[in-house]
Amino acid sequence: MSEKHLNFQIDYSKLKIIEEYNTKNQRYPVVLSVPHSGTFFPKEFLDNVAVSEQELRSNEDPFVNELVSEASDLGIPMISLNIGRAFIDVNRDSVEIDPAMFYNHPQTEITPNNKRCRVGLGLFHRITSERKNIYDGLLDYNEAQARIKNVYNVYHKSLQKMIDRTVKKFGFCLVLDCHSMPSKICNIMQDNRQIEFCLGTLFEQSCPTEVIEFMTHFLEQKYNVSIDCPYSGAYISFNYCQPRKNVYTLQIEINRSIYEDESVYKKSPNFQYVSIDICNAITGLANFLLDFKK
Predict the structure, then answer these.
(1) Domain 16-292 adopts which CATH fold?
(2) What contacts 166, CB < 8 A, 6 or more positions away?
(3) For burial by CB atoms within 10 Å, which of 139, 194, 236, 259 has the most?
(4) Contact 127, 120 (CB under 8 A)
(5) What is the pTM of this model?
(6) Domain ranges of the chain
(7) Is the CB of residue 191 less than 8 Å from the CB of residue 235?
């Protein structure tokens, strides 16, 4: 990366940061979080990156918000980020920042020695999924702080409000954090069958065993399901899992190859079938939770 300084500012007043769905007629103690399906990038950002918009999109979870939308329409509130993940990753802790990306990072500010930062996928992505450098210069740390204030904080404040309302109404809440995963990392099972769904449970710490078993058995009727491999859960799963406050989390990862043509970011003919299956699994779990906590 060159020593060139990339100085730009974004007018956030013109941007719609998040979408909220079905928040008024909630029927179930479940909240859907979709942090990585955003496709919009501010023009000022696009004018200062070294890769194409198509290459930036390789970091996102395509169409996951659409995959689960019918389940939300049945009475489950959902939040989805509109902004592309390569701009800021709301499934990271706000301190997961690589100081080397900035020309004016405060020397007195302590940042964690985080693995995701080292590989370029911290709060601010340094590389695309194909390991291309997103920037050809150094960023302004003040501009990065503006991203946190105007995007990251907006998402998490809204998600927290949904959780609080759910706990108040039902006495507990399960956050389903919805993602997709590239097919190239899914073929890791010993029997050479690709993982089609991965349930991230923080190694069975994020929610009751009965919840994990229900979702696993439901999906295994049609799909190959893995628990905590290759993903056990990230910031949202960890941060919002608070059993003492009756809040639980479960991360859902969907193999992109079963619903999308990964080479061109277009839905495959199987998209609607997969959407029906995952929505049936979510609503089935939601109904199970109503009885489970009685």
Answers:
(1) Aminopeptidase (3.40.630)
(2) 26, 29, 30, 31, 77, 172, 173
(3) 259
(4) yes
(5) 0.95
(6) 16-292
(7) no
